[in-house]
Amino acid sequence: MPDEKPSNESWKHEPPYKIQPAGEFGHVYWRGRCQCGRVEYWLNMEKPLDAKFCHCRGCQVLHGAPFQWAAIFQKSAMTFRTSFDSLNFYNSAEKLRQHKPPCKVSCAHCHSPIMDEGRNTVLLFPEAIDFGHGAGQGKGHEREVRERRGLFAPSCHIFYSQRVIDIDDGKPKWSGMNDESERI
Ligand SMILES: [Zn+2]
Ligand SMILES: [Zn+2]
């Protein structure tokens, strides 16, 4: 009875974990890859729904970074090219190592952070995306990379009250979640 799968395993057969043939997925605008290369994903949308910098303490500790850059996509816009076996899952609210959204997803081998998975969307970390770095040289090439990366530019900063560094970019700064907290 191949169709009778436990319902708590159904996520393995849905986007973004369901491995889709290239022709079915549509145009691939971007490819993302972890540091060791065992995890790769594709995106069929040119731009995220939104992107943010998060300065919360949780992101600082989990990412070992002053803040986190997240780009939001519908799950259907993403497909992994590698099995879910190559991924680690971590639910930070319950401190559980299991696939229980919202959870963090990373490479099981090199531990590069890949994304935060929500119910309908993913908040992926665009550092993994190949915007053309290193493919050419010179000022023109640098500008092209910057323009491509600019499609993922954050619209605002959240949890800015917990920041470790001031960022003078003229973008909205929220003390907590955007639209639900004080503007700083
Ligand atoms: Zn890896
Ligand atoms: Zn955060």
UniProtKB/TrEMBL annotation:
Molecular function via GO: carbon-sulfur lyase activity; metal ion binding
Keyword annotations from UniProtKB, A to Z: Lyase, Metal-binding, Zinc
Pfam families: GFA
Location of the CENP-V/GFA domain: 30-142
Keyword Repeat among record annotations: no
PROSITE patterns: CENP_V_GFA
Keyword Metal-binding (UniProt): yes
Protein family (similarity comment): Belongs to the Gfa family.
Name of the protein described by the UniProt record: CENP-V/GFA domain-containing protein
Organism: Polytolypa hystricis (strain UAMH7299)
